[in-house]
UniProtKB/TrEMBL annotation:
Keywords: Carboxypeptidase, Glycoprotein, Hydrolase, Protease, Signal. This is Peptidase S10. PANTHER family: RETINOID-INDUCIBLE SERINE CARBOXYPEPTIDASE, SERINE PROTEASE FAMILY S10 SERINE CARBOXYPEPTIDASE. GO terms for molecular function: serine-type carboxypeptidase activity. Residues 1-21 form the signal peptide. One of its GO terms (biological process) is proteolysis. It comes from Christiangramia fulva.
Length: 511
């Protein structure tokens, strides 16, 4: 009986844990589960887009590119979509722009289907849309001045980290971190310009949100590979994470985030008609608020507990005039209201909240007694439309991805925020961009910011640029543009046209 039980136990262990008693089978490229990740794939189609009245024929390539380590073992498959203008005598000299969103952990459907691709998702600005969603000709695609490469970040899109059990040598820690992520994009761009013969093309980076932080590091990385850029185009910038009010409680003693977000609070209150004395025009009003933020408000905050009662009360009253928030609320916050608190409080009398990334949007509060919002109303308006429209577009028009899942947001945690040796404190990429500009004094940088962005406030981006650790003479290489929109400037139709015209002019002027 005991022997019989031993046999049964052995059989159970053999079937339950076969790797304990059988030789491990290494996957191969022929294995159907992994073949599509172990080698690059692509689908080539053709199309036509009309940009501001001009018809442009293009070739589209949707696919994946496989990166390898020093031992030539595959580590990651990254998905991309590239658009090339047809009918050129020498395509190798045409500008090419590498485009990506941020997160970290976001795919690039937002810039692809909202801003620069030949087709964009149909939206009604701050009004809701519902299924069936559709795409329309993008009158403001950037294809009129540049070929375009939309790159999905590691862990997103159709790509995948190729781990050992898939026949590769990739690990999450190789890609989920500031420097690791930047290296992947640097390697992708280097491989792309070789594969598609674009070494001699004028080259541009276009990053949004965390993509601006990535661009600063990638610009420096490419420079170290002797790959020169003509321009770095930034949308909704954040280069220094200690400038975020959401992190202020983790970084006590730093009052700068409250100063830099104040003009965006004022713009939001102006938009929603919450100012006690609302001016007719926004921009002159914002100049006044910006000056207050860097002068009287900064002086008041810098005094800390030594601030006098008179100064404290006068500052609270001024903040009420600029934000529309009740004076008592401002005093309880000790003159320091963070972004989420503002989003919750501004429309609190109607039990509504504003958007974070675009405060023009608003929605019902799901936690009326809470201090901060439970969600971003902007997301509730656009996420389904972008996701559905892109998945349909790539499968039916680009003929790619029918056997894959497209990850709009990747699970990129834990993310290694610490930089390489020599960096301390909160993540900061200002040194990287400054070094790229110093090494290449012909490099031009363009900053685009929306007034109604509470995630990466426009004045914070401007402040960072004006404090880059580089000679002041290089400040002339930076161009500033602001828009009557939010974080995703292109959601506002009039701002999309203006964004296109400004970026197109920047590219034309820099090659």
């Amino acid at each position: 009986m005991k022997q019989h039980l031993k046999v049964l136990l052995f059989l159970f262990m053999l079937t339950s844990f076969p790797t304990m008693y059988s030789q491990k089978k290494e996957p191969t490229a022929s294995d159907s589960l992994f073949a599509k990740y172990l080698k690059p794939e692509k689908s080539v189609t053709e199309g036509t887009v009309t940009v501001e009245g001009k018809s442009i024929d293009y070739k589209a390539i949707a696919g994946t590119m496989v990166l390898k380590n020093d031992m030539e073992k595959p580590t990651i498959s990254m998905s991309y979509t590239a658009y090339f203008k047809e009918g050129l005598k020498d395509a190798s000299k045409r500008p090419i722009t590498f485009i990506y969103n941020g997160g970290p952990g976001s795919a690039t459907i937002w810039l692809h289907m909202g801003a620069w691709g030949p087709q964009r998702v149909f939206l009604k600005d701050t009004s809701r849309t519902k299924a069936p969603y559709k795409t329309v000709n993008n009158d403001y695609s950037l294809l009129d001045v540049s070929d375009l490469v939309f790159i999905d970040a590691p862990g997103t899109g159709f790509g995948k980290i190729i781990t050992e059990d898939m026949g590769g040598a990739g690990e999450k820690k190789d890609f989920y971190g500031t420097d690791q992520d930047a290296k992947a994009f640097t390697d992708f761009i280097t491989k792309f310009i070789s594969e598609f013969d674009r070494w001699n093309s004028p080259k541009y980076l276009f990053g949004e949100s965390y993509g601006t932080y990535r661009s600063a590091v990638v610009a420096k990385n490419l420079q170290e590979k002797n790959i020169s850029l003509n321009g770095v185009i930034l949308l909704s910038q954040l280069l220094s994470w200690d400038n975020m009010t959401e992190l202020a409680s983790e970084n006590p003693g730093n009052d700068k985030p409250f100063q830099l977000i104040l003009p965006s609070f004022a713009a939001t209150a102006w938009y929603h008609h919450k100012l006690p004395n609302r001016p007719e025009k926004l921009e002159p009003f914002l100049k006044e608020v910006e000056n207050f933020a860097l002068t009287d408000y900064a002086l008041a905050l810098n005094q800390g507990s030594d601030i006098s009662e008179a100064t404290f009360n006068a500052t609270a009253q001024k903040l009420h005039e600029y934000t529309g928030l009740p004076v008592d609320f401002i005093k309880k916050a000790n003159l320091r209201v963070n972004g989420p608190q503002f989003e919750k409080a501004l429309l609190g009398d109607t039990n509504e909240i504003t958007g974070r990334l675009d405060s023009r949007f608003k929605g019902e509060s799901s936690n009326p007694l809470g201090e901060t919002p439970a969600y971003d109303p902007m997301d509730s308006y656009i996420d389904a439309a972008f996701t559905s429209a892109y998945n349909n577009y790539t499968r039916t028009q680009l003929n790619f991805g029918k056997d894959r899942e497209y990850n709009v947001f990747g699970n990129v945690h834990p993310w290694e925020m610490n930089r390489k040796e020599g960096y301390v404190g909160f993540p900061n990429a200002m040194n990287d961009l400054a070094e790229a500009m110093v090494y290449n004094p012909d490099l031009k940088v363009m900053l685009n910011m929306g007034y109604f962005d509470l995630g990466t406030p426009y004045f914070e981006g401007i402040y960072e640029m004006k404090h880059l650790p580089m000679p002041n003479s290089l400040q002339k290489n930076i161009e500033y543009q602001t828009y009557m929109s939010g974080h995703m400037v292109y959601l506002h139709p009039e701002s999309l046209k203006l964004l296109h015209d400004n970026v197109a002019a920047f590219i034309k002027a820099t090659h």
